[in-house]
Amino acid sequence: MEINSLLIEENDDLQDLFSKYGALALEKQEILSSIVGNAEPELDIEKGIVRFGEKEFPIQLIGFLDPDENTWSWAWDNDDIGFPEDLIEEAKAVKEFGEKQNIPQLVENVFNASLTEAHILNMTISSIFNNDAYCAVNYGSFVFFVTIESDEIEISDDIDVFANVINDFHRKFEVNHLKALRGYALNKGYEYKYRDEFCIVKVGDDTIVVTLTERKNIYTIKIIRA
Length: 226
Known about the structure:
Layout: H1 14-36, E1 41-44, E2 49-52, E3 55-66, E4 71-74, H2 89-101, H3 104-107, E5 110-112, H4 115-128, E6 133-139, E7 142-148, H5 159-172, H6 177-187, E8 191-194, E9 198-203, E10 206-212, E11 218-224
Antiparallel strand pairs: 1-2, 2-3, 3-4, 3-7, 4-5, 6-7, 8-9, 9-10, 10-11
Helix pairs in contact: 1-4, 1-5, 1-6, 5-6
């Protein structure tokens, strides 16, 4: 499995990685939502797909949440379940990555997690492992999380998309604002410059100027068109 290691540093924990990679995942999730509409996902493990109405996408099984117990279990912890080996290759790669980075959540087979924390975990994984998206699927009494591959999901170079996504991301989640802004810009291949009171992101010929608070949080986001 190919890892997007562009922003990964030796001592990064899960929160650091989510700050750096989560905004890109949020953009991909919004694209997926626009493609599938209101269709509810249906998981077919035997076929290795998730189905949204008439649309089908190949998947990798990452893990599942027990919402009654608030516990997360990894798909690589497979001895008692028997998932198809070809569907848990990415989950195994996540464990190897977690061992290398010394990130406890990625190597503990079962741990306490809320639904929100499970989404944060999978947003981070889907970006680091270059997936096109991920989704959560109700499956029996569990919520399964799978990553998706699809040629239909293409990230945009629209400057308005960038501004809207980074604005939504830092408002919806507790993240390091500077890491989130820089990570999103560099993951998309944009020029990024930091100054003490503001940041600049170049998107084609256009520019985004982000002013910062004294605590280096995002204050305003302004688009300057060429």
